[in-house]
Specification:
Order of helices and strands: EEEEEEEEEEEEEEEEEEEEEEEEE
Number of strands: 25
Shape: globular
Distance between the termini: 41 Å
Strand content: 25-35%
Number of domains: 1
CATH class: Mainly Beta
Strand order of the largest sheet: 1-4-7-10-13-16-19-21-22
Largest sheet: 9 strands, mixed
CATH architecture: 3 Solenoid
CATH superfamily: Hexapeptide repeat proteins
Structural class: mainly beta
Length: about 190
């Protein structure tokens, strides 16, 4: 485990023994990090964030206030979790029939994806790299890389650049108006950088 000076933990936060925290990470007010959690370098965990056992969080991840990262969730590098967004980890929860850790389903959020404020991610899905989940959306199925997802349940509403700008396609090609990256439509439900 790194030296205490390698990362910042607010005095009101709890980091349980056995958690691994990367250099330069900031853990703010009222957070709780469970043993077995692994948090990468240069992350920011806002107020009231909970990170469960065996959760893996990559480098440069930003988790805004009031987010719980439950066991079974993996966040790759540069993921953004907006305020009060929700992850689940049991597909069919029943208080009278607890399943324990054996019932947790895996949720994978690929590099650079953004999940907006108050969005819900139902467990067992993969959110593709650089995808953008709009505020309040409910994700019930896999999200393609660069996909813009909106609504309840969320539907593919377009495409976004790695920088986050919405892409406008001219035929099968798009150039980001903000950063100049180029993309092509590889299939109706898939784009790729050129």
């Amino acid at each position: 485990m790194p030296e205490a000076t390698d990362y910042m933990v607010h005095e009101s936060a709890y980091v349980d023994e056995g958690a691994v925290i990367g250099r330069g990470t900031k853990i703010w007010h009222f957070c709780h990090i469970m043993p077995g959690a692994v948090i990468g370098e240069a992350c920011s965990l806002g107020q009231n964030v909970f990170v469960a056992n065996h959760v893996t969080i990559g480098r440069g991840v930003k988790i805004q206030n009031n987010v719980s990262i439950y066991e079974g969730v993996i966040l790759e590098d540069d993921v953004f979790c907006g305020p009060s967004m929700v992850f689940t980890n049991v597909g069919r929860p029943r208080s009278a029939y607890p399943r324990g850790t054996a019932g947790y389903e895996k949720t994978l959020v690929r590099r650079g994806a953004t999940i907006g404020a108050n969005a819900t991610v139902v467990c067992g899905v993969t959110i593709g790299a650089w995808a953008f989940v709009a505020a309040g959306a409910v994700i019930t199925r896999d999200v393609p890389a660069y996909g813009l997802m909106m609504g309840v349940p969320a539907r593919l509403a377009g495409w976004v650049c790695e920088c986050g700008a919405r892409l406008i396609f001219d035929g099968d090609e798009a150039t980001c108006a903000d950063c100049g990256r180029h993309y092509r439509q590889a299939a109706p439900d898939r784009i790729e950088p050129v």
